[in-house]
Amino acid sequence: MRAIVPLADGFEEIEAVTVIDLFRRAGIEVTVAGVHGTSATGSHGITMQCDALIEDCNLDGADALVLPGGMPGSRALRESGPVRDAVMRLVADGKLVAAVCAAPTVLASCGVLRGRRATSHPAHAHEMDDCNYVSDAVVEDGNIITSRGAGTSIEFALAIIARLVNKETAREIAERIVYRR
Questions:
Q1: Residue 98 three-state SS
Q2: How far apart are the first and last CA of the chain?
Q3: What is the pTM of this model?
Q4: Domain 2-176 in CATH: superfamily?
Q5: How many CA atoms lie within 13 A of 119 on its CB side?
Q6: Residues noted as catalytic
Q7: What is the pLDDT of residues 52-101, one digit of tens each?
Q8: Residues ≥6 apart with Cβ < 8 Å to 172
């Protein structure tokens, strides 16, 4: 399994690192994709090195695209042509597309949430007009998974692992990190 996690300056560190870490524990190959360069600095000053630029990522080989939130990182993701293209292509191909916190607004702006159940950070609910907005921690609708924020990052990552790998692997990782729902 392969996942692409795009990062732009202002990403939410907890959301990005949790997803990347838990995916790697599950054996998912992760490409950390820079939106504006080969590194990105999060909204709390933590800089991460990227593996590739988003425009250089092989979308044909990707099983999932996962967008961490954070501001202004989510705005940068929404304004990135290559990120928007990746969202549209993977959704059209039936691949898994997931977003947390403010990042579900990227999916909304691409029109892929129309008529679907979805969630986001409460501060961005007003930007989610075309979906059936719910306030669950993690919301799955077809090949799209959305989540609320930094505090739901583990549950979000485990839900994606359950879909990409299997539920047993997600359960085993939850036990190893002593995660209790």
A1: strand
A2: 26
A3: 0.97
A4: Class I glutamine amidotransferase (GATase) domain (3.40.50.880)
A5: 18
A6: 101
A7: 999 999 999 999 999 999 999 999 999 999 999 999 999 999 999 999 99
A8: none
